[in-house]
Design goal:
By secondary structure, the protein is mainly α. The protein has one domain. The chain contains 5 helices and no strands. Helix 3 runs antiparallel to helix 4. The longest helix has 29 residues. It starts with a helix and ends in a 10-residue tail after the last helix.
Length: 142
């Protein structure tokens, strides 16, 4: 029997993996990159770099207690100078990466915009579900 946390994360991992597999999202992105329409490569690059930045910032937030030696107060992140900056950049990178991914898949893969949004959302759900499986430090109590 999976734990509650594992079950919650599998609600993202399983559908995300199924949609990513069903729509062949990684191979569609590879084809778009290889075909090199004038705007396709920059959009794929923006999407990939935004995705990598999202992962790096997420891991940084998880590693703050190890790097700084003190647990951050995640519940009051707006009052923390560092957390508020990082979370704002993280949010912007998630939105811009997802929008670029959906746009490039919708325009250049032959999926159309609806399936492009489904494919982009599936890939993001898979990635966030997997990242959510990483152990998080306990939030500071007030």
């Amino acid at each position: 029997m999976p734990s509650g946390h594992l079950a919650r994360q599998l609600r993202f991992v399983i559908p995300g993996a199924a949609v990513t597999y069903w729509l062949h999202t990684p191979s569609a992105l590879a084809r778009i990159w290889a075909d090199a329409a004038p705007l396709a490569q920059p959009l794929v690059a923006i999407s990939a770099l935004s995705g990598l930045l999202t992962i790096a910032l997420f891991l940084y937030i998880l590693l703050i207690p190890i790097i700084k030696g003190i647990p951050p107060n995640y519940r009051s992140w707006r009052e923390s100078g560092e957390l508020s900056s990082v979370i704002r950049v993280l949010t912007a990178s998630m939105i811009s990466g997802w929008a670029a991914l959906c746009g490039v898949l919708g325009r250049y893969s032959g999926m159309g915009y609806i399936l492009g949004i489904v494919a982009g959302s599936g890939l993001y759900a898979l990635a966030f579900g997997i990242m959510g499986l990483l152990p998080a430090p306990r939030a500071a109590r007030q």
